[in-house]
């Protein structure tokens, strides 16, 4: 009896699943996506950019998104499943540069194009399309040090220890620091790229009473402004990323001097565009493509105008406001907000 | 007799479900074959060991919330050691570390009399910190032969090495224990601790041993993580909840005393193949977890209903 019922249930499950499988068809390219952080504004924008770009690329018939919170072993499983699904290309945000090579090598052995976005992978032959994180940190830090007249004490709020984006940013920060001998780092801390953690750390610094003249943050930015405002401390120049919340503060918080450095999550869309280019035989000369960041400051009229123009009330406050990567992505603002890929509707 | 039949029926039902799901996979993706089974078995590897460990402590009437953290400790230990020394002694050290952590978990529960859920929750954080102390960021290396040992097929071209490792390791550890006095004590303690104590079972020692076995399985789990990725990652993966899910789906009663290891391990494969099917079908990732959870609850409910009915007859 038990066997029968379980069997019946299983067949019902299988039957419910099969029709959808054939519905997609195989018009042209199927692209697989693998990502291991779910529920973070930046990553969600990345996924939506991938969907929107796949939709506007006429050649992409289907986009399979493996998007969940997991470790490298889980990402290996997802990539192997994507290979089984017969994708033509895999665009991934790698959890680790070295851990995925077995699956990526297996993919490339079957002529599947591999594009890593946001961070690099060491697998030979994989393409890497990433925001230039070293330049990101250098731009912001240099602007901050210039605001301080080349001398002063700064708080240095990093991301996650050992993550390649953090290491690259550290190199950029140190490069700027080397150019300004009068600047001292009074606090260096890892926020874990967590809003609540970064805010508490800033409360702690303010409570110690050790004075500082500026703050550089690795993208945990609007809550740092909140910490100043809530504790009643006088604002100092703050550098953050182009997250919608912080960008809004740059134009609305009285007395806040600051700059946002772009770090578009839409680099995911650029990764899809690159994968399609490669599939169409238009591979770039180098396997590594870096997207350079731009700095928006609120001290000049020009800068303020740029910031005002970048704002969009329809955007999720945790999304970066730079929703496109010029030269790479082709979708419209509406299309990325709709977050629909080929096959959805 | 009915009891034996019931246990058997559940496992056979799971096996039938797995076969049906594999057939469904083949239907959805006609090219699914040897390599697909191989990557399925490899994906199941860390989950299978976490689940085997969890099953043993659940059978003894406890729960171990620190399995994922212990696996992380073992993975970073393996990756750190193998950078410096030969693979074989490193493997033995890692297994000893796993066993030691498990025994410590068990001893704390028995000696302090603090509920197991509290002790192992605390140890979840302790082992997580220990893993970060051993290796601050993902890194280290594993011996090439260790990575090769779980890759590819064995003998016939369709039997994955990873599957063989799961079967051999679990059988080698569990079958001798199951047939010994310790096995009997584990089941006795799980079904009724007081009765077991009055019958002369050394309840405390039995519990410590069960947690030790769980730690040993976590050692294998950590080794398989290192072998899969070629590095050690100090941050624990999603193995805690997945192992509890597989244990329940596998027919082990959460109160203890009933169930085995075969059911939960088949359940691991069922949960992995469902993930594969959902990926093959390009189901919205936000919906996949809902489907996974629903299928699990549905199977357990159906199974329970069927068991109850056959028990009544």
What gross morphology of chain A would you assign?
globular
In spatial order, strands of the major sheet of chain A run 2-1-3-4-5-11
Largest sheet of chain B: none
The secondary-structure element order of chain A is HEHEHEHEEHEHEHEHEHEHEEHH
Largest sheet report of chain A: 6 strands, parallel
CATH topology of chain B: ABC transporter involved in vitamin B12 uptake, BtuC
CATH class of the largest domain in chain A: Alpha Beta
Uncertain spans of chain A: 1-27
Q: CATH fold name of the largest domain in chain A, please?
A: Rossmann fold
**What is the alpha-carbon Rg of chain A in Å?**
22 Å
> What amount of the residues of chain A lies in strands?
15-25%
**Share in β-strands of chain B:** under 5%
Structural class of chain A: alpha/beta
Number of strands of chain A: 12
Question: Between the first and last Cα atoms of chain B, what is the distance in angstroms?
Answer: 13 Å
Explain how this protein is built.
The complex is a heterodimer of chains A (345) and B (313). Chain A contains 12 helices and 12 strands. Chain A is an alpha/beta fold and 345 residues long. In chain A, the strands form 2 sheets. Chain A has a 6-stranded parallel β-sheet, with helices on both faces. Chain A has a 6-stranded mixed β-sheet with strand order 7-6-8-9-10-12, sandwiched between helices. In chain A, helix 3 packs parallel to helix 4 and helix 9 crosses helix 11 (301-310). The longest helix of chain A is centred in the N-terminal third of the chain and has 22 residues, at 2-23. Helices cover 78% and strands 0% of the residues of chain B. In chain B, helix 2 crosses helix 11 and helix 7 (161-179) crosses helix 8 (181-191). The longest helix of chain B is centred in the C-terminal third of the chain and has 28 residues, at 285-312. Chain B is globular. The chains are: A alpha/beta (345), B mainly alpha (313). Chains A and B meet through helix 1, strand 2 and helix 3 of A and helix 1, helix 2, helix 10, helix 12 and helix 13 of B.
């Amino acid at each position: 009896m038990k066997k029968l019922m379980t069997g019946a249930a299983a067949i019902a499950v299988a039957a419910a699943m099969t029709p959808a499988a054939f519905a997609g068809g195989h018009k042209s390219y199927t692209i697989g996506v693998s990502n291991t952080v779910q529920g973070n504004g930046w990553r969600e924008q990345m996924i939506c950019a991938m969907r929107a770009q796949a939709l506007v690329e006429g050649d992409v018939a289907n986009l399979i998104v493996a998007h969940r919170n997991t470790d490298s072993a889980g990402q290996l499983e997802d990539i192997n499943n994507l290979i089984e699904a017969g994708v033509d290309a895999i665009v991934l945000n790698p959890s680790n540069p070295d851990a995925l090579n077995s699956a990526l090598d297996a993919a490339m052995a079957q002529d599947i194009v591999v594009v890593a976005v946001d961070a690099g992978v060491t697998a030979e032959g994989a393409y890497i399309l990433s925001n230039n994180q070293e330049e990101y940190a250098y731009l912001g830090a240099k602007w901050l040090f210039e605001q301080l007249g080349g001398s002063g004490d700064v708080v240095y709020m990093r991301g996650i220890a050992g993550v390649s984006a953090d290491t690259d940013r550290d190199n950029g920060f140190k490069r700027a620091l080397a150019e300004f001998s009068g600047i001292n780092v009074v606090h260096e801390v890892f926020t874990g790229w967590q809003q609540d953690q970064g805010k508490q750390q800033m409360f702690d610094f303010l409570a110690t009473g050790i004075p500082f003249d500026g703050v550089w943050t690795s993208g945990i930015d609007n809550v740092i402004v909140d910490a100043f405002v809530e504790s009643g401390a006088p604002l100092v120049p703050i550098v953050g990323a182009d997250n919608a919340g912080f960008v809004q503060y740059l134009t609305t918080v009285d007395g806040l001097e600051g700059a946002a450095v772009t770090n578009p999550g839409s680099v995911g869309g650029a990764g899809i565009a690159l994968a399609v280019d490669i599939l169409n035989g238009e591979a770039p000369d180098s396997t590594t493509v870096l997207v350079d960041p731009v700095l928006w400051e609120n001290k000049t009229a020009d800068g303020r105008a740029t910031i005002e123009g970048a704002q969009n009330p329809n955007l999720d406050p945790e999304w970066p406001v730079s929703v496109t990567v010029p030269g790479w992505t082709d979708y419209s603002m509406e299309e990325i907000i709709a977050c629909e890929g080929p096959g959805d509707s | 007799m009915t009891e034996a039949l019931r246990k058997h029926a559940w496992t056979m039902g799971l096996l039938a479900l797995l076969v049906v799901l594999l057939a469904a996979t083949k239907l959805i993706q006609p090219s699914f074959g040897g390599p697909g089974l191989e990557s399925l078995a490899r994906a199941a590897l860390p989950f299978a060991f976490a689940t085997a460990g969890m099953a043993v402590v659940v059978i003894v009437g406890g729960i171990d919330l620190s399995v994922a953290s212990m696996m992380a400790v073992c993975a970073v230990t393996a990756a750190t050691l193998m950078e410096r020394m030969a693979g074989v002694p490193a493997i033995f050290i890692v297994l000893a570390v796993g066993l030691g952590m498990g025994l410590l978990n068990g001893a704390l529960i028995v000696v302090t009399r603090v509920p197991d859920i509290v002790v192992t929750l605390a140890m979840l954080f302790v082992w997580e910190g220990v893993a970060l102390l051993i290796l601050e960021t993902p890194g280290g290396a594993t011996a090439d032969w260790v990575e090769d040992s779980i890759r590819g097929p064995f003998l016939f071209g369709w039997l994955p090495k990873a599957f063989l490792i799961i079967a051999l390791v679990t059988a080698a550890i569990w079958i001798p224990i199951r047939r010994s006095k310790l096995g009997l004590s584990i089941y006795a303690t799980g079904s009724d601790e007081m009765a077991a104590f009055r019958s002369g079972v050394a309840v405390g020692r039995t519990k410590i041993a069960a947690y030790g076995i769980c730690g040993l399985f976590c050692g294998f789990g950590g080794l398989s993580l290192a072998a899969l990725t070629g590095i050690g990652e100090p941050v624990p993966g999603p193995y805690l909840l997945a192992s509890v899910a597989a244990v329940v789906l596998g027919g082990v009663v959460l109160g203890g005393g009933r169930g085995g290891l075969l059911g939960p391990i088949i359940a691991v494969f069922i949960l992995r193949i469902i993930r594969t099917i959902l990926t093959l079908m390009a189901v919205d990732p936000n919906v996949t977890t809902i489907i996974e959870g629903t299928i699990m609850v549905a199977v357990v409910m159906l199974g329970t209903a069927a068991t109850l009915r056959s028990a009544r007859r």
